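Morning run. Coffee first, then this:
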Amino acid sequence: MKYVLSLLLFLQSIKSISQKKIEFRLSPSIGISNNKTSWSISGDLNGNNPDYLSELVWRNVNFSYGLQASITLENLSLNMSISSSRTFKGIVSDIDYTANGRTGINYHEQFSSNNSNFRIIQLLPQYELYKNKLFVNVGYNHISSNNIINHNSSVNSTYKWYVNGLQIGFKYNMKLFREFNYNVGADLLFSRYYAKADWRLRNDLKHPTSFDQIVKFNYGFSTLNSLSYSFNEKYSISLINKLLYSIGYKGVDKAYLKSGGTLFTQVKYNEILIIENYLSLTVPF
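And here it is:
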């Protein structure tokens, strides 16, 4: 909520000092999202002994809400968006291996991951290339998530990660018929991944930071599909689908022991998949 209030105050301050014809629009949204977070570590820093030692996969279904604001002056616009999601149905799978190629399973359990959450913040300057149809953008995105493992009613582990990165892409607007429009877009994503965990499954690790992970380079893409209906020039309603995918390899995992030592191994990979489906209403501000 504090991010939304900050965004509204920022827009109001710009509007109050503006002397040119600038358009301000707000788009609150509500919907359902699915997200998958997975990662694996090897037995050593070289990615061996075995190549996959431990692997975690979260699959969550979430209630989502958000706010997008846009400021437009002639061919240039600035789009800012904030969305938050909370898991109402989630499962996390935890598997350990003793041999290469994900073989020799010696531990496999599933737990609830309800009440996990994630947030997406984007700052996206956009330029109109062609007749209100083709737009290009270069901007910043931040995604953070708190993934929960519910072991029982009194003990939970947490795995918190975030990525900060660059987003480059385009959007194309097509008029279908009457007041209906269809928007399609795609972006390339480049980011850095950082995570830390409070791992209550193991008594030999420190708390609240049991281990952390860094992957210096994640890459991926995002897509947009939107069908909108315009009541007039200022008001519209949209059905929107967004997909975001990001993956990175060969990071570093540091586990902190209660005894005072630190264990180093390789993050084999990390993977993020987010699918959002929501209803959005656009109004002037």
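The helical segments are 2-17. Good start to the day.
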